[in-house]
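dumping this here before i forget
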Amino acid sequence: MLSFAGALPIYLYAPVADMRKSFDGLLGLIQQAQIVASAEICSGAWFVFHNRRGDRLKILYFDQDGLAIWYKRLEQGRFQWPEANGRTSLRVQARDLRLILEGIDLESVRRRKRYVHRPPARNPVENRVKVDNARPDAMVTADLP
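structure:
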């Protein structure tokens, strides 16, 4: 069973791969394309490969104590691979890989605007509470923008 972990990097190998390749052959493609450093291969990253017809897909990943391959062959249809624009690999999110596996074209997906960055915090000195020194028993006030 394939479980998606949110923090793992996922790399799509853009050129067509020979699906007869196994562990060493796929590792050779990764190293030849210089997708990641050799030490990073065992870090848990996923490497996704597809064939010429687009109906077969392999995922190579390090699973706790060794390399593992997950393989899927479609009976009908094909996987919609994103445009690489001359690059040998694309880094995608787990949600994008899930869409590819479900047969959804990433180019046609319309993403809604989401909260991306937290607004910068205001300077705490500017937010300090002001005390009326003339009347120490008075309530404190704060400057509001």
